[in-house]
Amino acid sequence: MPNRTKEMLAESLMKLLARRTLDKITIQDIVDDCGYNRQTFYYHFHDIYDLIDWIFAAQTQELIEKCRACGSLDVGV
């Protein structure tokens, strides 16, 4: 279940980023959006940048898995 919590926090941040810049988003904004509290956020992440790192890693892994599934993961860019 911890990954689902991380996913919810990530979804909230992404939704908020569609409306305003990162410097205008607080941890409180994120947890209010998804119904958690600040303690839950800090249990999973050190700060907002840690959450951004997690989002990037999760999306990168998802992309790699999709490429492997369709057999188009070539070495190099």
UniProtKB/TrEMBL annotation:
Keyword annotations from UniProtKB, A to Z: DNA-binding
Annotated GO molecular function terms are:
DNA binding
Q: Does the keyword DNA-binding apply?
A: yes
- Top-level taxon in the UniProt lineage: Bacteria
Q: Which residues bind DNA?
A: 26-45
Query: Where does the HTH tetR-type domain start and stop, copy by copy?
Result: 3-63
Its name, as the record gives it, is TetR family transcriptional regulator
Q: Which organism is it from?
A: Candidatus Ornithocaccomicrobium faecavium
- The organism's taxonomic lineage, starting at the top: Bacteria, Bacillati, Bacillota, Clostridia, Candidatus Ornithocaccomicrobium
